[in-house]
Amino acid sequence: MKEQVWETRPLECWAKAKELRAEWQANIAKDDKIVGQGNTYFVDWQEAFPAIRIVEDNPAGSMIQAKSSPFARKCRLASEIRGWGREICGYHGNIWGSQFLGYDENGAPFARRHFVVPFPCVCDSHAKRGQQVRDFEPVPQWMSDQCMYLGPRDEDREEAMNEHKAYCTLRQINDIERVFGQKFDDEKMVEMIHSGHVERECRSEISRLMAQTVPAPISVKDMYSFYTLGFLTRIDPQKNLDFWKLVRDEIKWRAENHIAALGTERFRWIEAHPPSWHFLKYYRYMEQYGAVCLGSQYTSGSGDYKGIERVTYPEDTPLLTREDAIRYSDTPNAREPVGFKQDEYMNRPPYGEDVLIKFARYNQANGALLALWRCGVGCTLTRKEQAMRLREAGFSVLHYEGSQPGDRTDLDEKRFLNQLDNWMESQGMQKLES
Amino acid sequence: MITAGIDMGLEYVKAVILKDGKVIGRGRGHSGGAARAANAEAAYDGALKSAGIAAGDIQKVVSTGIGKHDVTFAGACRTESVTAVKAARFLCPDATTVVDAGADETLISTIKDDGNPGEVAINQKCAAGIGLFLNYMADRLELSLEEMSAAAPAPAECRVSDGCVPFAELDALSLLNHDAAPAEIAGAVTLSAAARAASTINDITVPNLRSVVLCGGLAKNKAFVKALETLTDIAFHIPEDAEYAGAIGAALIAAS
Q1: Residue B159 maps to which CATH number?
Q2: How do residues A139-151 score in pLDDT, each as one tens digit?
Q3: Number of domains within chain B
Q4: How confident is the model at residue A95 (pLDDT cuts 50, 70, 90)?
C-alpha cells in the first residue's frame, strides 16, 4: 500500500500556464515584427520597442529537442557540417540547424532574425554563438559584457563595471533606434521595471515557500512548467503579472494547508543545474521513492539562501531618466551575481561557503543530484568539488553523466535510472508501492 | 532457510544458493544480451544442481546487477551497491569498504558500522576502468584472459592513455606497430584500467580503508589487482567467492 502521508492535489494554475506557453509558441512563428534572437532575461528593454520581439534561443532550442528527437538530430547535423562541434550547447546547435534547414520542428518556415543579442555570460562563449546568427544573413549583433569579479568587494570597481554595462545597453538601444527607425518608450521601460519587480517578488515568495515548507507545496518538476514564463519566454506583461500572482497565491494556500506536491515526501533533494528538458521523467521516477526535488539555484527565485540583503525598490531608487532605468535593470548583475554560473564561480571557497551548501540547507534537503555533462548549459568545472563539499557537510550526493539540457545524444536512460536506484537504496530507501 | 541470489552482469550471470548462512550452490554463464532471461534460468539451474536441491525448495529469489530486471523469476530486485555491501560483510566481517569491479561498472561503497552502505561512488561512462575494456583489448592483442591476468607491469616507455578508451586503444595499436610485445601492452592497458578504477575510489570523500574487500570479475585478474594495489596503496581482501559477491549479497537480502 502506498504510504500517503500528506494530502496532495493537482495545481489549479496548470491550465493558465499551458495557455500562456502556447501563446508564446505561436508568437515565435509570427512574422509581424522585427525579430531579434537572444535571451529576454537579459534584454529587459525589448518591451519598450513595441515593434520588436526577441525569440529566446534557449527555450526555442530546447523545444526542438523536446518535441522531436529526429528533427533535433537533423538540426545538429546541419550545424556540424558547417563546422560547429558536438560540444556546442544543444540549444544553439538545434536552433542554428533549424535556421540552416530553413524550417522549424513543425515544418513552418524558420522565422527570419533581424538582429542578435547574445546574452552576457560568465562562460563567455555566447559572443561566438551570436556570431553564427549574425553571419547567417548577415544581421547586426549587440552584446553587453558580463560584469563580475572575484575576491573582496570593491565598490569603486563595481561602480565602474556597472557604468560600463549600463553604457553597453544604452548603446544597444540607441543603435536599434537608428538602424530600425524605432522609438524607445522610456515610460514603458520604467513600467516594465515596476512590474518585473512584482513578478520577481512573486517568484521569490514561491521559492521561499518551496524551501521552507515541509511538505513542499510544489516540486521543481511542476515549477518547470511555469518558471520560464515571463523572463525566458516573454508574453503579454499584464497577463504575465496576473499569472505569477495567481501561482503565488495558490502555493501560499497550499503551504498554509499542508497540501503536498508529493503526498509521500520523505526525502528532499536539490540539483545544481537546469535539467535535461527532454528527460524530465527522472523527477517522477524519484517520486516513487518519496523523493521530491526542490530545484537548484538556477530555478530558485529567492536569493535568501545566500544570506544577501535584498535590494529594495522602488522607494530608494528613483527612475527619472532612461539612464536611471537602464542602470537599475542592468546593475544587479554586477552588484550581486544572479545566475547559477556566476554563483559557482564567486560563491565558493576560498571566497566564501559553497552556494550549494547554503541552498541545500535552505531547502532542508537530504541530498543532491549533480550532473556531469560534457557541454552546454549547466556544464561546470566545479561540480566534483561541490560534491565533496556537500558530502563533508553531511548531504548525500550522486553524480551522473546525463545529457545536456538541449541535446539527448548522451542520455543513457537505463544507466541513469539504475544510478538513481543505487543512490536511493544505498540510503535504505525502496520504491513505495503504487 | 534456503534462498537464491542472481547477479545479472553485463558479461556473466552468476547464481548462488544460500542455506542457513552458507553458500551451498553456484552457477555461472554468459548473460547473453537479449537471451538474458533464459541464461539467468540456466545459471540458476546450475546452482540448484550443484546444491543438490530443487527450485521448489527455494523460499525467495532476489536479483541484482545491470540486468536484474530481466530475471523474471526473481521475487525482488536490489541494486548493486546494497548487495555488494551485504556480501562484503558476509565474506569479510570486518570490511569497511567494498570495491566491486565488474564488466561494466566499478562501484565503491563504504560500509557503516551497522552494515549498511555509507558513501557510494560509481564510475562514469568512460569504459577505461571496467572489465569489458580489458576483454576487448585481450581480443585486439590476441591474448587470452589468463595471459592478460598474468601480464607483468609494463616498462615506462610502454604506456597508454588512462583517460579515454579510444585513445587507449589507439595508443595500444601504435605500440603494436612499433613492435612492442603484446604482453607488455597488456600490462599498459591493465594499468590504465586500474588508474580509472583508482580514480573512482578517490571519489569517496570520507574513505574508510581499514579493511577493503575487492570483488567482481576483475578481482580475478591478478595484473589488475596488483596495479590497483600499487596505485591506491590498499591491500585488498579478495574472497574466494569474489566473482559471486553480488549474487551472495542478493541471496542474503532474500534471507533477511
Answers
A1: 3.30.420.40
A2: 999 987 777 777 7
A3: 2
A4: very high
